[in-house]
Input
Amino acid sequence: MIPKKILRNVSGKIAGLSLILCAMAFSEGNAQNTEHEKVSVQVDLSKENGKLNPIWSWFGYDEPNYTYMKDGKKLLTELSQLSKTPVYVRVHSLLVTGDGKAALKWGSTNVYTEDQNGNPVYDWKIIDKIFDTFIERGMKPIAQIGFMPEALSSKPQPYRHFWKPGDNYNDIYTGWAYPPKDYQKFATLVAKWVQHSIDRYGKKEVESWYWELWNEPNIGYWKGTVEEYIKLYDYTAHAVKSVLPTAKIGGPEVTGPAWNVSEKFFRTFMDHIVSGKNAVTGQTGAPLDFVTFHAKGDPKVVNGAVQMNMGKQLKDIDKGFEIVASYPTLKHLPIIIGESDPEGCAACSEELNPQNAYRNGTMYSSYTAASFARKYDLAKSRGVNLLGAVTWAFEFEDQPWFAGFRDLATNGVDKPVLNVFRMFGMMPENRVEVHKNLAYDFARIRDESVRKEADVNALASKNAKTAAVMVWNYHDDNLPAKDASVDLEIKGVPAKKVRLFHYRIDKENSNSYEAWKKMGSPKDLSPDQIAALEKAGKLRLLNDPEWLTVKKGKVVISMNLPRQGVSLFKLNW
Output
């Protein structure tokens, strides 16, 4: 019998070859492409559509010790510069026992151990390095309270895992995932951490953070029951508030609200917040300042090509919003989608997971543009308060170039998806209307995903002196396709002339991956090659800025937008 690992490797290589052949067909199809699908996109600056809150300026990752490594610091600096408002960062394993060495899906701070008599020993050095890196850049932590220190775990052994791509994913859920053997000791650790944070960074700074308990407790990350999670939440929330009553505490960070078992966990938690008996105080309910859950898509390889499933991710988001909206006393609370991504495993590389081949190129960037725009619409339709949507993607230190992890940069070089966030950061704060006469709205994508015609659509905003329109050409299937011939009509322009800046992400622009392939996909790069890739990875203007004459309050811009391409038009007056 052939070992399963060998079969996985063989099937991965076959699927990878299919993707290469499909990419060749895509290139040939584009070379022969002379016709264009025509789409008219109409924006009206005179019709405001609420605030364009920076829900995109939230990021997270599994490996906290990457934070203060060379490429981690570089990327965090870039992320901090994307937004006019502070960028929030969420990381796992902040209370895990260990030596602080980074590994895939692993991290540690050694913040809590015990002496031979069982007395607590607190060591803040590593956690301070992590949070100092954020604070120095003006970033804000989503301080994740977890996972369980070895000395407090009710089942500590085995504790450290050594997972690598291709291993059984369930192997990661070791002693750190279990409830505490002493809830009060855990609560004391939390209180000490909050007080230490105040002492180091000041009360005002810590009041601006978000404190949350655990990660995805409805699956293997939590080896206890729903009731044990709720008990731990009561102890944790009480500990946080006892030190800083104005601190913001939230949960439950379940994943997949549209799954029946997840919805049950979610509602059991929310019921407790409203009417349950508090395990610490004996009173009714528990404090909750914001609500968290996760939403993921589900890509596959179909006939040799990657097929995304944005609909699944939007269903999860919509169900999460529906659950929150069903609690009248909690409906107003801010919602943070703690992880919001095309699929679930950032550390699962393309080599063994060919469905993840979308990650290096423009499919990830166009998916991001199209999906974030619909998150605003879903929240508005449910009448809930969406504060942020965490992109669970960062960087993987010292890994092969463009290995197909779900990351924003590779070895310090920005990937195309990062440029979408740069585009978002350039958009003003007041959302304006995009006419609803296009192929897809949020409801159709939620129900059908994008399996028929392409999703050519836009997100637009303005302030007193600027307007911006992001336009994308997205499809779930990464197959050869015609460019979209787009006529962008912008009405309600309050000036006689505007200066137009046109930024583009496509195969030729803002794309380090294509530049790397043109180099021959080298494994080892010279300093000059790295510098060239760094330049190629930045957001690029498609052409020089130009002045346009406004006629009767309107400008019309025509362009050809390749499949999976994204354009940002910025108008100044």
Observations:
- Residues 1-34 have pLDDT under 50 and may be disordered.
- The chain has 13 helices and 25 strands.
- The longest strand covers residues 37-51.
